Amino acid sequence: MTVNSQHQLVVAISSRALFDLEESHRVFTEQGLEAYSRYQIEHENDLLAPGMAFPLVTKLLHLNRDAAERHVEVILLSHNSADTGLRIFNSIQHYRLDITRAAFTNGAAPWRYVDPFSADLFLSANAGDVVNALDAGHAAAAIVPARTENNGREQLRIAFDGDAVLFSDEAERVYQEQGLAAFSESERDKAHEPLSGGPFKNFLAALQHIQAQYPPEKSPIRTALVTARSAPAHERVIRTLRAWNIRIDEALFLGGLPKGAFLKTFGADIFFDDQKGHVEAAAGYVTAGHVPHGVTNVKHD
């Protein structure tokens, strides 16, 4: 996994996640690249509406305000060419987003630049790019359409599922292959054996680095673990985070209850989960990202 040696949180985001590009994307899928290029150039002075991840990006960049050092950098990764991407940068400037670095790949896979940019997280509307980034060892999520409103809170709040997101899918495999009773017994027996890290372990550690620079009561970031686990499977999770020396602000062990209402109560700006059904349900309450990683995302012939 990429580790940012500058202790700065770097988030790479696709243009379709940052802005509403569905109309122009429809031109591309229905009429092809030439028509798409012509459409973007003809509309390059038309501002793009905010997209699914726009509120999250504004909060991330807000972390730099009044800070002694720059905490966050957001980088744009786009399938567009530099020519057709001019409309995107015009909109970035209009909304006064402090985004200065970008990769326009003219149809090639933009996720390849996650590593050289040392990004801690990649957010995209393209599920294929996300899968490839995860396979390469990076934290990545596919943003899904959400019916949410800005909560008006300045503090950035991020929620994570546990297995196959913060942690490896080793325990989830026992559940999927042997059932709940075997899972509970295995987790009880291994309560003192830390879980291996999942794709979002380093991202959570990068968030904590920022948190550590503030008194807990004044932290600009709050995190939560929102998991279907319940007792006795809770102990291994708690001891794993302790072994990693990583802090989580809130931990919700829901025992299979739907997560949406809890995420809304927490006030999550985004929630990451490996199970698409959970992500789609959560999207009725908060912005959500699907992490297509682990055993629940393995395709069977």
Strands across the major sheet, in which order? 3-2-1-4-5-10-9-6-7-8
What's the name of the CATH homologous superfamily of the largest domain?
Answer: HAD superfamily/HAD-like
Strand percentage, roughly? 15-25%
Mean pLDDT: 90
Number of helices: 12
Q: How would you sum up the major sheet?
A: 10 strands, mixed
Question: Helices and strands: which structural class?
Answer: alpha/beta
The topology string of helices and strands comes to: EHHHHEHEEHEEHHHEHEHEHE
Overall morphology: globular
By DSSP, the count of extended strands is: 10
The domain count comes to: 2
List low-pLDDT spans: 1-5
CATH architecture of the largest domain: 3-Layer(aba) Sandwich
What is the CATH class designation of the largest domain? Answer: Alpha Beta
What is the fold-level CATH name, i.e. the topology of the largest domain? Rossmann fold
Residue share in helix? 25-40%
Report how far the terminal alpha carbons are from each other.
29 Å
Radius of gyration: 19 Å
Would you mind describing this structure in some detail?
- This protein is an alpha/beta fold and 301 residues long.
- It is 35% helix and 16% strand.
- The chain contains twelve helices and ten strands.
- It has helices spanning 15-18, 22-31, 33-42, 54-62, 86-94, 127-135, 170-178, 180-189, 201-211, 234-244, 260-266, 276-282, and strands at residues 9-14, 72-78, 102-104, 121-124, 140-144, 156-160, 221-227, 250-253, 270-273, 288-290.
- Strands 3-2-1-4-5-10-9-6-7-8 form a ten-stranded mixed β-sheet.
- Helix 2 (22-31) packs antiparallel against helix 3 (33-42) and helix 7 packs antiparallel against helix 8.
- The chain is globular.
